[in-house]
Write a structure and sequence with these properties.
293 residues; mainly alpha
């Protein structure tokens, strides 16, 4: 994986991490729908790109991703199903729906098909055209989310994640808030899947496996380097985390490490990143104890 390739993947998967950040960090729920909604966006994007309508594919991917998020939210809020189980159920159901969208095929190749990237290729030389497109999309989503979470509805979503009981006591409809939050989260995840498909010129029904781990890795690595003192820094840390994660993977691949171990490496990176704050805390505590003695 080249440096340019790492930047491309870091940017496109930062959108995936944006979506997970909303459910995991803001709503305080680990939403496993991500593995399914990512492929759903990819499948819809592939079908419409194959027909010569890549932009329509992106728009519809966002819409179907939002619907997937709404289903998960309704399972939690109206059916009383545990959040993690609700995500698993939606993700499982989406596997069949994704196959249905793809016409029963496990994969759809898009070689020589026009995409949003080829539209820009005539204006920007070399492989930089992909980075140019991704930078624009990431900047738009970052700006929109930053503005949204400063509105009354956005603040209500953040407050619900912090203290749901207090919000309910303040007459805030937390069920509706969750529906909106999960819809936005999975809409962005589906957009990420749609862009990955057009960038890599193929869609596969199994491409969503492990997406939750990748997005968690980006969020956690980003929070290690940038403290999430506010929402803007939190979103920015996601981009940084996604880029660093991809550079770590690229570095590991240069050592001729078997690619089949990538999922294991991803899990180890998340474990290490999760452990760092606790290790620092224990070291600080031990240091204070020694000073007192």
């Amino acid at each position: 994986m080249s440096i340019i390739g790492a930047i491309e993947l870091g940017l496109v998967y930062s959108l995936l991490a944006f979506g997970t950040y909303i459910s995991f960090r803001i709503l305080n729920v680990a939403d496993l729908t991500v593995d399914g909604s990512f492929v759903l966006g990819a499948a819809v994007s592939a079908v419409f790109t194959f027909k010569g309508m890549p932009i329509t594919g992106l728009i519809l991917a966002i819409l179907v991703g939002a619907i997937a998020g709404i289903v998960t939210a309704l399972l939690q809020t109206k059916m009383g199903i545990q959040p993690i189980l609700a995500g698993i159920l939606t993700m499982t159901g989406l596997y069949s729906i994704n196959l249905m969208v793809m016409g029963g095929k496990a994969n759809i190749p898009l070689l020589n098909k026009e995409s949003v990237f080829t539209y820009v290729e005539v204006f920007v030389d070399n492989r930089a055209y992909k980075i140019a497109v991704l930078l624009i999309v990431v900047a738009i989503i970052f700006t929109l989310l930053n503005i949204f979470f400063k509105t009354q509805l956005g603040l209500s979503i953040r407050a619900t994640g912090d203290n749901e009981d207090m919000c309910r006591a303040s007459s805030i409809d937390t069920d509706f808030i969750k529906v909106v939050g999960f819809a936005i989260s999975n809409a962005i995840v589906a957009l990420s899947g749609a862009l990955v498909t057009q960038m890599q010129q193929s869609a596969d029904v199994n491409m969503g496996a492990g997406m939750v781990v990748i997005s968690f890795a980006s969020i956690i690595i980003g929070s290690v380097f940038i403290r999430n003192k506010n929402n803007t820094l939190g979103l920015f840390s996601v981009i940084i985390g996604s880029l660093i994660y991809r550079f770590i993977i690229a570095l590991i691949l240069t050592t001729n490490f078997p690619p089949s171990y990538l999922k294991l490496i991803s899990a180890l990176v998340v474990i290490i990143a999760l452990s760092i704050p606790n290790i620092k805390k224990n070291m600080k505590t031990n240091k204070l104890r020694k000073e007192r003695v």
